[in-house]
Structures are given as C-alpha cells and as structure tokens.
C-alpha cells in the first residue's frame, strides 16, 4: 500500500539525536507514512541508535558520505508517497505535525504548492522561542502572497517544517549536489518563485539551533555566497527577493567577520545595500571583529538566561 507521506531524514553523525527524532515521527497522530533514513556514511553510533528502533515503516538507505543534498535527493528518489516531508536528524516534530499537513493539503488543492507549518526555535538547552514572521497574525492556514517579505525576520519555510508533492519537487529542481550547506535556502527560493506558498500558523515542530552551525567553516560560507548570488536576474525584477537576499548577505557578512574570513567579508560589504538595513545591522557591520566576538559571547550569555535579542527585529 502506498503511504500518504514519505519522510526523508538524512543522517550523518547524529547519535545523540536520531532516536528522539525518530520517536517524534512514530508519535504522530497521522500514521500513514514511511520513514526513509539515508545514512550518509556516519562514523559514529548513529546507525546503531537507529537500528535499535523497530518499526516496519522505517527504511534505511546506505550511501558513502556525499553530503545532505545528495542524501535528500536519494531519499526522495526512493519515496513511495506522493507527498514529501523533510526532517533533519536533530530536529523533532510535535504529534500533530503530519495531521495538520494532511488537513491543509485537503483544504488547499495543491496545484503546485509548498506547505509550511510554523515552528519554534530552540536557542539554548533550556530556552525555546517562537519564530517571528513578517505577516499579519491569523489563526488558520492561508496563502502567503509574498514569501520573501514574509520571511524578513524568520523564514516562513524551514527544512523540517515543509511538505510538497514529489512532482513539484522535480518541477522546481532537486537539491543541488554541490551545495553542502545552505541547500534549503536555495530550494525554498526556487519554490517561492514558482509555486504557491501555504502557511499554517500552528506550531508543530522545533528547530534545534543548539547544534553546531556549519557556517563557522569558510568553505560553507563560500557555498552560501554562491547561493545568494544565484538569483541576480530574479531579484532585479523582484524587490522583495532583493531585500531578502540583501539580509542574507548581511547575515553571511557577520559570520565571515566572526571567523576572520576577510576576503569574502570585503566582497560582501561591497555588494550589500545599506539603505534597507536597520540601525542595529548597520552598527554591527561597522563594529571591529574583536568587539563583534565579545558581543556574540554576550548574546549567548543572554540566551542562557532566557533573554533573546535579534538584529532582525
């Protein structure tokens, strides 16, 4: 029997998280699904942790380490369900996640759509905050008219909180294999440019930001730079996309400053339009690296004490 949902989980060295991630799926109130875990050459006990959980809906695919984009593409290729949901191996869903996707899909005839559920953000081990969207607050699923404007604070779409028809995925294009970081940003932009975006404001999952960010590595910063500059023609015709990508360039520039990636930082500074940035963002860009590092440490101190500040608000 064909499952309604195929859940794709790329797995690489997540031995401390994968069991809880899988259990959050098995606890779903909507049960017509298959779980496809693509083990991307893990070198820790991730596979052992996965195999300790027995359920006939779990399918494991083995591949040598090739990165998350190829792992997701491989999982989707082998999916039997018409609808694909993605889940990172260190994130968790609430029990109503799939049920609400199912109801939203029935409410909005697909016709080429990306379905998004709201999410919380785990900013520290003991502090979870709600994602903030640049939209009017409503309490029911609705179509997002301008995805990029709506995503100027936190993104409407996030990898572990989206659902799409398999045919639509191939229509907008697979994950780019060379993008071993930021591949979700690239895919979501392509979906937003070509498909309808349907958003459910009910929180059904949690984004775990306590896991080490790959953007601390220069090679991943270079990849993200390529991504934000891959839509030059589109942003020339779309003011909201231009502003959205400008903010992504700002965020990347700050990451470059913090790790001392001077060459890419200088390149980004020459490309960032300062006019749309708020005062906090402009000040941070001008702040010397040493001061920026101290401010980042203070930011983490505040998080530990359950105080959240953001330059995007």
TrEMBL record:
Offer an example of a GO molecular function term for this protein.
hexosyltransferase activity
Instruction: Name the UniProt key words of this record, in alphabetical order.
Output: Transferase
Record's Gene3D superfamilies? Spore Coat Polysaccharide Biosynthesis Protein SpsA, Chain A
- This protein's species is Algibacter lectus
- The superkingdom of the source organism is Bacteria
Q: What is this protein called?
A: Putative N-acetylgalactosaminyl-diphosphoundecaprenol glucuronosyltransferase
Q: Which Pfam families match?
A: Glycos_transf_2
Signal sequence interval, chain numbering: none
Q: Which InterPro entries match?
A: Glyco_trans_2-like, Nucleotide-diphossugar_trans
Q: Which residues form the Glycosyltransferase 2-like domain?
A: 6-130
């Amino acid at each position: 029997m064909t499952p309604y949902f195929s859940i794709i989980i790329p797995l690489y060295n997540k031995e401390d998280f994968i069991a809880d991630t899988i259990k959050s799926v098995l606890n779903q109130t909507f049960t017509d699904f298959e779980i496809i875990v693509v083990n991307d050459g893990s070198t820790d006990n991730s596979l052992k942790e996965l195999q300790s959980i027995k359920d006939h809906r779990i399918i494991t695919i083995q591949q040598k380490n090739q990165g998350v984009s190829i792992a997701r593409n491989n999982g989707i290729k082998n999916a039997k369900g018409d609808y694909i949901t993605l889940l990172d191996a260190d994130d968790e869903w609430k029990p109503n996640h799939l049920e609400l996707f199912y109801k939203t899909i029935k409410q909005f005839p697909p016709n080429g759509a990306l379905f998004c559920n709201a999410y919380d953000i785990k900013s520290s081990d003991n502090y979870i905050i709600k994602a903030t969207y640049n939209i009017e607050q409503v309490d029911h699923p609705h179509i997002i008219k301008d995805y990029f404007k709506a995503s100027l604070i936190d993104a409407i779409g996030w990898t572990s909180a989206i659902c799409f028809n398999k045919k639509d995925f191939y229509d907008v294009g697979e994950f780019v294999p060379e993008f071993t970081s930021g591949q979700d940003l690239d895919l979501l932009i392509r979906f937003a440019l070509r498909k309808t975006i349907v958003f459910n404001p009910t929180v059904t999952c949690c984004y775990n930001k306590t896991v080490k960010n790959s953007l601390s590595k220069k090679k991943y910063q270079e990849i993200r730079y390529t991504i934000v500059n891959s839509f030059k023609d589109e942003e020339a015709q779309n003011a909201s996309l231009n502003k959205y990508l400008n903010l992504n360039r700002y965020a990347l520039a700050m990451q470059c400053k913090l790790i001392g990636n001077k060459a890419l930082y200088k390149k980004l500074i020459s490309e960032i339009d300062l006019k749309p940035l708020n005062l906090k963002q402009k000040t941070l860009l001008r702040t010397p690296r040493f001061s920026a590092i101290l401010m980042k440490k203070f930011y983490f101190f505040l998080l530990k004490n359950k105080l959240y500040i953001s330059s995007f608000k």
